[in-house]
Design a protein that fits this description.
Length: 51
């Protein structure tokens, strides 16, 4: 029985979890648009930066 450390990667946009970062990356490419990811990132950045 292999006891490899299962490191789960989580999607920053939803509750998706993959075994590897590549899985999450593929998920991001297929389930989320790049624009949506960029919007989310900018949204998060603007929130932390209060004028
Ligand atoms: Zn996702």
């Amino acid at each position: 029985m292999p006891s490899m450390p299962t490191q789960t990667e989580t999607c920053p946009l939803c509750a998706y979890t993959g075994e590897t970062a590549t899985d999450v990356y593929t998920h991001l490419q297929t389930s989320h648009r790049k624009s949506a990811i960029s919007t989310r990132l900018l949204e998060h950045q603007s929130r932390s930066r209060q004028r």
